[in-house]
Amino acid sequence: MRLPVLVALTLLLAGNAPAQADDAILREATQQLQALIRINTTNPPGNELAAARFIDSLFKADGIESQVFESAPGRGAVVARIRGRTGTTAKSPIILMGHMDVVGVQRDQWTVDPFAAIITDGVLTGRGAIDDKGMLIANLQAMKALQRRVRAGTTLSRDVIFVANADEEAGGDFGMGWLLKNHPDAIRAEYALNEGGRTRIMSNGKKYVALQMAEKVSHVVTVTANGPDGHASIPLDGNAIARLGRALAAIGAHREPTVLTPVTTRFFASLAGIWPDAAQARAMSDVASGDAARVTRGAEVLRAIPTLDAVLRTGISPTIIEGGIRSNVIPRDAKATLNIRTLPGQSIDSTVARLQRAVNDPRVTFTISSRGTDSPAMSAENEFFAAVERAAKRVEPSIVVVPYLSTGATDSADLRRAGIKAYGLLPFPLEMPDEERMHGNDERLPLSAFGFGIRFVTGIAEQLALP
Length: 467
Ligand SMILES: [Zn+2]
Fold this sequence. Notes:
This protein is α/β, with parallel strands linked by helices. It has 14 helices and 19 strands. It has helices at 5-38, 48-61, 133-151, 176-182, 240-253, 262-272, 278-289, 292-302, 306-312, 348-359, 383-395, 412-417, 432-435, 447-465; strands at 65-72, 75-82, 94-99, 118-120, 123-125, 160-165, 191-194, 198-201, 207-215, 217-226, 230-231, 315-323, 329-330, 333-342, 364-370, 400-406, 421-424, 429-430, 444-446.
């Protein structure tokens, strides 16, 4: 289509102005992210209070209401709030949240100082860049964008709450768990946007957003094999270590049944339409079809992709093995630890019963040493999911949003049990190798992806809070 020169020029200028604003925002956000990464919040011990005070000072500088809560010495949270409409037409608040603590580093495996937040060739490298300090700053910038609207005279349709919490990487007792227990009023909301999803760049360069709406539940099961003890010079039938070895071989060969949930059915149906590999895309359609024979066929093909296989069934990973005291003594027992992740709605007791049958040895016993708690799955049929879709397409029209069941656990489970509809996102488009650096070495965030994420999260907040 051809446009008259004046119209074309006007469009060009209108298109340019936000781009320049975006550049300034990205520059400011990058400096904030560097400063936040330089505050070492490795958990344990955490020391998130320094990070909390830093974030609090950024809000206060902008005239945004903000408060630091101390959950324990050196630990804490920041809760900031932009107030919206009051009265009967006001909608319930939304939360933009993230965690300030990071996991430890294997210093010798990094090519740069993990806490220096060095930028080379447009890529910021540092612990926490993608988990979860990048998202905290993207959320903070979304708050600032809303505050600019408020200053220009807009009244938001609801309160928007920012939460940066502590201790996510170690279970949340001094973070979200503490806030929910001690300050539930500060975070009372209808929806929460948290970490836990993905924005993935596929091998063909196309992107999709996996919005986390449910998560697997983590349990710890101890397997104990018993046998006769004695001197190693007399070999004994039923040696506990050999018995445990046979049991673990049976556990390793066991596969839990394929189970589709509403979230995974929609996940595979949506992904089938955009997946670059034709055979795998067909397998995804098969899995989503609901037809038993096709589901089995599709699941067999997807077995080749561990991340996808893990959302189709309860997963069992042996992680620790213990037994024996010295080289010439046959021990009475030997133990193995299994980390079992059940699909939502599936019972750990049923899995253990199936394992017992697979092992088929009365001298091998199973104990559930730590039992996880299930949380409800979120719906794709509400204003939140629609807002994420619209915001994603505003940043990149071809992007597809798919519902996602995460194999990892997040603070969202606590929120969902408390009645807050929590959704998980990682708003930064990453290729698989960069995504896999989360909790790994040389964790990094391309600044172009950071800019994308800031626009994406800001868009979500605007979709939900602008009148
Ligand atoms: Zn995280």
